[in-house]
């Protein structure tokens, strides 16, 4: 019975959530190619590597070229052309190594190890697997680390290092526990069982095969693994002399192999059935040995090919037996020469690759030296210009600094004037509210008591006007209530079902960076805009946008009102006051309006001093 590698290509890598069209095309080609590989359909795999080559020609993405070579190697692998498959896997690996893609390098090394083991280059396979671990362990690629240790176990078993093989399988089981891979788990149980089977410890071997067969719904979910474990359990049972259900189990395995079109495994199953019939029915034994021979030839399964010839020689007599034996000897010698030739060829490919990489590295170092020398000469040639340039830059920087300093001082002086004006307004507002409005209230009560109701009513209007004026003059404080909340309170005061106000960008700005006078200007400007809109525009909707660009804050206010002709209509006192406030803080005020198309007011001021 033969030990099996994990199928290296059974894991499809997941791309990120956001994929452009090219990524989707690439992923679909890769998925289709993998499906074809597992179905042993060379036409699908061939189509995939051609599409990948065309995709590479369009965008020159080296990772796609690496995939093209990988799928070409898979195509030759299905054709059982090990030398060509090895060559293209190696090309794919080298590109991935150049790109620094450790996962892809590790995966290609695993594929190379499979081919090396197939031609009995066990030491070469072991070297490839150890190199794969060097790429996979730093990135914690647990799925492929499981495969690597399983493969090292198989190679160790081929080299008759049974204890070492079991150690590797147990390491693989540790990673399997992490990734929870059912297929890998079943392969590992089978391979551990086969180590004991080859030592003729069939009871121990059977315990591992049975453990695998007890896996949940294995027959329906994993028919290939079910057939493999059942066949090996039946074989050990046969060796232990058990007679019940031996033939029925082998025939069940045969049906599964035929349904799955697993030609390589069919040669093994037919040989097992032939061995079962040797002492019972020579004709059937010979029939199944011939079937095993045909399947082994189709799949280049050299080990089963030799076993089938040996079995047919033992079952035949005379010249026919001699002919089978001569074919066996000739094939054995030929395979030995072929395997030695392939080993040498693989070694040559690796040598030439390493040599090319070394030459490229030497050339890269030489180019870097040349570039460094040229750069040094260039630096020496420009150092004088740099010194003079630095002097000029220092002079210009000094001029710019003093200009900026003067501008900043002027701006701060303007802010101080505005603050003094605001303080004066607060004092006037306080006097109007506390003194004038209070005196008017007393006078209003006296008029009411004297039954001068008409005069009292007129005085009430004067009192309201004075109170409103005090509110207009009163300053806004952003110390107790943050600017954002002041704006929201202002909007909520005027918002109604008939006048909808939408505010954008207010929450996205860090208002702690804005000067207090700037915030006051923005607040008062917005209030003036809203009041004007309600009084004159006949608007039902207003949109307010706050934004910051290049250390300036922008306030855009737009309504859907009746608009006006900016060329003919003069600004009212409210807009004139607004323009004065903005100009005081080095800002700009722009009014855009057309009759019937609403009005837009844009205010730009510095963010701070």
Describe what you observe in this structure.
This protein has 609 residues and is mostly helical. Among the domains are: 21-92, no CATH class; 262-318, no CATH class; 384-475; 483-606, Heat Shock Protein 90 (2-Layer Sandwich), CATH 3.30.565.10. Helix content is 74%, strand content 6%. It has 21 helices and 5 strands. The chain has helices at residues 21-38, 42-59, 62-78, 82-99, 102-118, 122-136, 142-158, 162-179, 182-198, 202-213, 218-221, 223-239, 246-260, 263-277, 282-299, 302-315, 318-449, 453-473, 483-494, 516-537, 573-584; strands at residues 500-504, 541-549, 552-559, 588-593, 599-606. Strands 1-2-3-5-4 form a 5-stranded mixed sheet, with helices on one face. Strand 2 and strand 3 (552-559) form a beta hairpin. Helix 16 packs antiparallel against helix 17, helix 19 packs parallel to helix 20 (516-537) and helix 20 runs antiparallel to helix 21 (573-584). It starts with 20 loop residues before the first helix and ends with a strand. The model is unreliable at 9-18 (pLDDT under 50).
Write a concise synopsis of the structure shown.
This protein is mainly α and 609 residues long.
Level-2 CATH architecture of the domain at 483-606: 2-Layer Sandwich
Largest sheet: 5 strands, mixed
**Helix fraction?**
over 70%
Strand content: 5-15%
Distance between the termini: 86 Å
Structural class label: mainly alpha
Cross-sheet strand order for the largest sheet: 1-2-3-5-4
The CATH topology of the domain at 483-606 is given as Heat Shock Protein 90
Unreliable parts? 9-18
Please state the CA-atom Rg, rounded to the nearest Å. 44 Å
Count of beta strands: 5
Could you tell me the mean pLDDT?
82
N-to-C series of helices and strands:
HHHHHHHHHHHHHHHHHHHEHEEHEE
**Helical run tally:** 21
Oligomeric status:
single chain
Q: So what's the CATH class of the domain at 483-606?
A: Alpha Beta
> What is the overall silhouette?
elongated
